[in-house]
Write a structure and sequence with these properties.
The complex is a heterodimer of chains A (119) and B (114). By secondary structure, chain A is mostly beta strands. In chain A, 0% of the residues lie in helices and 50% in strands. The radius of gyration of chain B is 13 Å and the shape is globular. The chains are: A mainly beta (119), B mainly beta (114).
Chain lengths: 119, 114
């Protein structure tokens, strides 16, 4: 079974600064997907960014980028120019590829990192 | 465009009572999931369904039952509620067209068991 670990329960960043959230995972699979989800106080689950394991290039979405280290099984999220609206709980998640036997596309989540943005 | 709708949004139960949480999606998705979210533990999969009439156990299925009689609905039942089932419950769905890479989540149901 796959596991996802987020070792930082809480992080804080000054507005306009850069912050990096850490995520490590354990899997024996070679093909999979990794995600970062944002959960603001409204409880919505918002997809921030996705990375395919077979792609070496790190994914980027505007101010959000990842550092994907497949050999180290590490998947960190960098938020640049932090804004007050970035304050939320952030979850790292893993999903097996379609080719995996028994895969029903379900997500395995980490325990989350609560990000506070200081004005 | 409603997406994924969960009913109710909030509920308080007494130990031993039963209830059903309803998840409805209007996107014709094949796959549907029930997760629970607890502090410090992230979201954990309770049960899931890969199509109408099929269900399967996830990581934490004990104390819950599910049914998918219609493609658009996925019901989560608690037959005899226990305080350990106090949690926020999320339903999600996805489809084969996108390769299941985009999961749509409901807004969650906060359930308290006294």
């Amino acid at each position: 079974a796959q596991t996802v670990t987020q070792s930082q329960p809480e992080m804080s960043v000054q507005e306009a600064e850069t912050v990096t959230l850490s995520c490590t995972y354990d899997t024996s699979e070679s093909d999979y997907y990794l995600f970062w989800y944002k959960q603001p106080p409204s409880r919505q689950m918002i997809l921030v960014i996705r990375q395919e394991a077979y792609k070496q290039q790190n994914a980027t979405e505007n101010r959000f980028s990842v550092n994907f280290q497949k050999a180290a099984k590490s998947f960190s999220l960098k938020i640049s120019d932090s804004q007050l609206g970035d304050a939320a709980m952030y979850f790292c998640a893993y999903r097996s590829a379609e080719s995996s036997m028994g895969s029903a596309r379900q997500l395995t989540f980490g325990s989350g990192t609560q990000l506070t943005v200081l004005p | 465009n409603a997406g994924v709708t969960q009913t109710p949004k909030f509920r308080v139960l007494k130990t031993g009572q039963s209830m059903t949480l309803l998840c409805a999606q209007d996107m014709n998705h094949e796959y549907m999931y029930w997760y629970r979210q607890d502090p410090g533990m992230g979201l954990r999969l309770i049960h899931y369904s890969v199509g109408e009439g099929t269900t399967a156990k996830g990581e934490v299925p004990d104390g819950y039952n599910v049914s998918r009689l219609k493609k658009q609905n996925f019901l989560l039942g608690l037959e005899s509620a226990a305080p350990s089932q106090t949690s926020v419950y999320f339903c999600a769905s996805t489809n084969q067209m996108t390769g299941g890479l985009v999961q749509h989540f409901g807004d969650g149901t906060r359930l308290s068991i006294l």
